[in-house]
Amino acid sequence: MREIPYEQLGLTLYHEQLANGLQVYLLPRPGYRQVYATFTAHYGSVDSAFARDGGPVRTVPDGIAHFLEHKMFESPAGDVFNQFAAHGASANAFTSFDQTTYLFSCTEDVAENIRILLDFVQEPYFTDENVEKEKGIIAQEIRMYEDHPEARSFYGLLKALYHAHPVRTEIAGTVESIGQITKDLLYECYSTFYHPSNMVFFAVGGLDPHALMDLIRDNQAKKSFGPPPRITRVLPDEPADAAAARQETRLAVSQPRCLIGWKEVRVGLAGLDLLRQELLTGMVLDALFGRSADLYHELLDEGVIDPSFTWEYELAPSYGYSLVGGNVSRPEAFIARATAAVARARQEGIPKDVFERSRRKHIGRFLSGLDALGYVARHFTAYHLRQADLFATLDVLLSLRWEDANERLREHFAEERQAVSLVLPRD
Amino acid sequence: MPGFVTHRRGRFHLHVLATSQFRTRYLDVKLARPLARHHVTATALLPYLWLEGTASLPNMRALMRRADDLYGAMVRTGAGKKGDRQVIEAYASVPEERALRGADGLFDAAAALLTEVITAPAIAGDGFVPEHVEKEKVLHRKRIESIRDDKIQYAMERCLESVCSGHPHGLPRLGYLEDLAHLSGSTLWQEHRALLASADVHVYAIGAFADEGRMAEALLGRLLSAFSPFAAEVRAHAAPPVTALSPRGSEVRHVVEHQPVQQGKLNLGFRTGVSYASPDYPALLVANAVLGGSPTSKLFVNVREKASLAYYASSRLDGLSGVLMVQTGIDAGKYDQALAIICAQVEALKAGEVSEQELAFAKRGLRNQFLQLGDQPLSLADIHFSGALAGVHREVDDLLQALEAVTRADVTRVAQSLALDTIYFLRSEEVGVHAGDPV
């Protein structure tokens, strides 16, 4: 086991890669009552076409990674939630574009709960009957999001930005696509993506890293997994420009919702380069659209936007996007003003004092974020799958240069990669 | 579990939790006054208006920039309710200085900023700045209207409105659209003065403090002096403790609303009459957990796992009003089936059909939730504040002990108090409307 000290943060991370390939990271946080543990497969909704060990390319139904996540909670012995409940843990899971994470938080019986987590994720149990039953439940999950303005505007934007990349498809799929899922397809995806060498375990909180590492090592040594499959993730060719300038949906809402997005041109990054670009672009977005920006207050004063206004930037190896927006009473005015502000900023750059203020804010927010163990676990894992280190954030923030921010601004915000997504009231 | 140390001066309460556990220091100011129809909207607007500017930071932009300069201090305000009290809140948090160079005094600066936000907002003449008022009236209208856009929240609020009808508990926390037109800078200023002069003030300070005694003294001094221009009304008596709504013997209310939605929302509201301060409260917590508090609960297992009718099926208890709410999202055509299953589960709970395992899971789950509070500073403050309003001093450790002692007989007994008050259903007009289709 290796110790990785982060002196400025006052943290020590413990790491070991086990014989079966599993990466294990443990972060003690003295004083915390809870332990928050996650077990993650590098497998998400975008992995819908793949080849294994040089074999033919397989294309599976949209939403299958998320469906698999639901079905893992059944075991031959019954419902996994009961096992956690017997030890006072609160368990859950989520599927994103590129990861599937199983998690619990607990304050007692940490060892038992970690064993349950490792064992249920490593013991698939699918039957024709339990697969069919799940379709009704997930159909209602999909219906719930169909009424959801945030989800509709978000996916509308990705559909406009991307021509072919599967990031344009809803993580849960559609009622029709999940109808095609079978027990055999689930086993196929499971055996491809849930090998320990394609997974990472991360736990944080009031824990003893030595005892837990022993426990995890012993647990894994008792199981056999066979050789790791060689996974080829197959993605369609994706042009650099946006697929459509605009996407509109109508819903039973009181007011319009509008997002403007820009497709990332500089993808294919990993590690420190990815982290640097993510943080630098975030600072640019904050300078242009954040709570301290001129544009935010002009639009707010004029009644065009409300405090739901926000920005976001996401960067993965094969896709990336920025978005800005929220509830917008006059979408056309917002689009015109935001586009003009971006064009002006590309000409004039961001003032140095604005950049420095944004740096301080990002530093403070990162440090405060360390108190939320769920946030730490989620971000540590997401960065790890992209070969980056969450705890390098402070150093990177301190090293970013104003000149680079202005260069990033000019590179990222191009008109041909811009799209708009609107959710409009039905009446 | 460590508890708050309280310093009190009249209606001012400063609750300090000194701990080195967190990288953030928190300051949370809560002002409580009775909910009343005539001032609910004006009072709800005030905390948002405070962020429009202060005596030294004349507009929101200046205020936000000041907060960003303090290493991204979070400065938030909001309006809520607890039982029959309207709660106005202002909150600030700043990172701890240990990882930052040249960032001394952040907490003091944040405390000064927050105090100014509450007690020295920007004014012009005899009231708030007219431009600020007009802007916030527009935003408040949107704030109220947008509750409709989140159907889960909307269904819950509408159901609660019916369950609490005829009682201040049922007043909407943000107030009424029709009141907005009558609000002006001067009427709002009067309401502001009334709030600051009469509210019970609870301040929570949590984090690492070098000298907590001196910090507490300085903070209390700062608050008392900032509030002093708002001369306290002479109150004949202190506000009475918040108590639960009693069940009414009338028939169940049925509320059905139509909107073009993909998923129907079915909510059942129960009055229990069990107050937060009641010795039965821990048993009611367990009963709620057995019914719908987790993935092992009766509702989750029977509505979702066995019948595949829903993605979410749960129940939640509002401790101060004693209202228990069942909520689920279903296909509108499955209304009868879902309602029958939910009612059967409530009846099973009342009939004592609770296995040893269900009881143990519910109690362990609650124990875990309350132990985790120690890691969640704002939740800890919120629980403490609920106790203050209900007039019961109950440390988390006391609650843990009480939960441990709850028996199946206790759960069955307290389950008898569940009186179904309202069945609320939000559904589409007709089958076959695809609200999410692209235009």
TrEMBL record, chain A:
Domain Peptidase M16 C-terminal: 181-360
A molecular function GO annotation: metal ion binding
Domain Peptidase M16 N-terminal: 62-174
InterPro entries: Metalloenz_LuxS/M16, MPP/UQCRC_Complex, Pept_M16_N, Peptidase_M16_C
Pfam families: Peptidase_M16, Peptidase_M16_C
Cross-referenced Gene3D superfamilies: Metalloenzyme, LuxS/M16 peptidase-like
Protein name: Peptidase M16
Organism listed in the record: Alicyclobacillus cellulosilyticus
Taxon lineage: Bacteria, Bacillati, Bacillota, Bacilli, Bacillales
From TrEMBL, chain B:
Signal sequence, renumbered to the chain: none
Alphabetical list of Gene3D superfamilies matching this protein: Metalloenzyme, LuxS/M16 peptidase-like (3.30.830.10)
Domain of life: Bacteria
Keywords: Hydrolase, Metalloprotease, Protease
One example GO MF annotation: metal ion binding
Database matches in SUPFAM superfamilies: LuxS/MPP-like metallohydrolase
Pfam families on file: Peptidase_M16_C
Domain Peptidase M16 C-terminal: 215-366
Protein name, UniProt field: Inactive metalloprotease YmfF
Designated gene of the protein: ymfF
